[in-house]
Design goal:
Length: about 120
């Protein structure tokens, strides 16, 4: 479900329905130079391709570069990952008075508060 130009109450209500029924949910809007986007994908599993790191044998070469890890771009491995997304209501209900929230405040975009 994709929503735009909706009130906060409508977005929260539709997201709750989607979250309960395991339906992916996206919402966003733009206000001049500012905008927001929110995604609730429920439990989302995906595969990420990682480049293998090979270590150089210190007995083969001399010099400062021998201890650095080297990337072998020809060898990759697939890593399965899982992310659990929170509903919109939970994302908007953050208590900004706690110690953890004060640290997160520095990393939070000001546009988040426009949605509030």
């Amino acid at each position: 479900v994709c929503l735009t130009c909706c009130s906060r109450d409508v977005m929260v209500k539709i997201n709750q329905i989607c979250h309960k029924n395991s339906v992916k949910f996206f919402t966003g809007d733009v206000f001049g130079y500012h905008g927001y986007m929110f995604a609730d994908l429920g439990e989302h599993e995906f595969v990420e391709e990682k480049t293998k790191i090979t270590k150089v044998n210190p007995g083969v070469e001399d010099g400062p570069d021998t201890k650095k890890a080297k990337f072998d771009s020809s060898e990759t491995t697939m890593v399965k990952k899982r992310v659990v997304f929170c509903p919109l209501k939970e994302a908007l209900a953050v208590d900004w008075s706690g110690e953890k929230a004060k640290a997160a405040l520095k990393r939070t975009a000001p546009d988040y508060f426009l949605l509030q």
